Amino acid sequence: MRAGLVWGGIRAPYPNKFGRPLGAVFLVLSLSFAEGDTLLLRNARVVIVSGATLPQADVLVEDGVIRAVGEKLEAPPGAKRIDLYGRTLTPGFIDCASYLGLYYEREETLDAVTPELTVLDAFAPKAPSLLEALRAGVTTVHLVPGEHNAVGGLTAIVKLDRSDGACRVLEPRAGLGVSLTDAALLPLREPTTRPDLEELLRRAFSAAEAGSPLAEARQERLPVWIQCDEVDQLQTALALAGELRLHVRLLGPVEAHRIAARLREAEAPVVLPTFQRLDGAVGLNGIAELAQAGVRLAFGSWTPVAAADDLRTTAALAVWHGLPRDQALRALTLDAAQILGIADRTGSVEPGKQADLVVWNGDPLDLTSRVERVFVEGRVVYGEASP
Predict the structure, then answer these.
(1) What residues have CB less than 8 Å from 169, skipping those under 6 apart?
(2) CATH superfamily membership of 93-340
(3) What is the pTM of this model?
């Protein structure tokens, strides 16, 4: 195993273009696995996600990567065999918006525009909440800044690996976090009104210096993740995206279903919050309306605002309120990966993808089912290592 160490003033294995050492409060191992165990997971109900579910099939894993999926696969010499008869195997779930491991250090509110900050500076990879996420079947997390700054900084994507007390950084610069919510309006700092907030964002992006995250967003090289709640905030987000040529994803828009057709036309993906923030049956019905309109969906927990397992609960409730079952599972896995730009690596059970897999004792959208094991790149990080 090769490891890049990120802490204090030690340089990260990826460039820190702003010349700022990452925070001394955390340690992240950016893992690149050497040759690992070969596994043959046998006789599971395999939820491919990108294709039809296989009622009883095998999955061959070599060097942390899925090599084959099918019936009665041959085990290579020396392969470990794990019989999963009666179990369901799915891709690891993806939490598309989370404060996991960030505690209260989600933003710097002295300045409303802080594009150079990164959530990795505040990330604590040994937080107990990471193990709770694994227990919920979550293997990949998109960390976002808080919503009190107009521009909160750079988001990041990490893969959970509690067995080492470490996390793998998939994308240290996954996008730029922006807020159009009322939380960004603070009484002792501009902006204090919604028009001021909109104008501040327009000025910040328009005057961006070359090479800055704001300029990269203008060049559509960096996605912009906009936190918004209500319809008027959504409309502002879409208007700014069109005016400034921003490639946007919308975080937490509880009223998104009210303008579903416009969101589809703008090709703006939506990351929905868990059921606690949705408006009861109206909000849950709205998930199905968005899917029917062709809007790409994913779910975010904003942990610790909600528990990681609430992702699955929300997807199950959405199914009860009309969302097709396969789309609910895609929102937890492949569609989330596509929205994050990592679908070439994770999000489905198919050859060539990293072996981020979850073993359930029943159907994952049956809320009586529980996680038995979690594999990250072919290694057991939660549950029993052998049958």
Answers:
(1) 6, 14, 28, 30, 120, 156, 157, 158, 159
(2) Metal-dependent hydrolases (3.20.20.140)
(3) 0.89
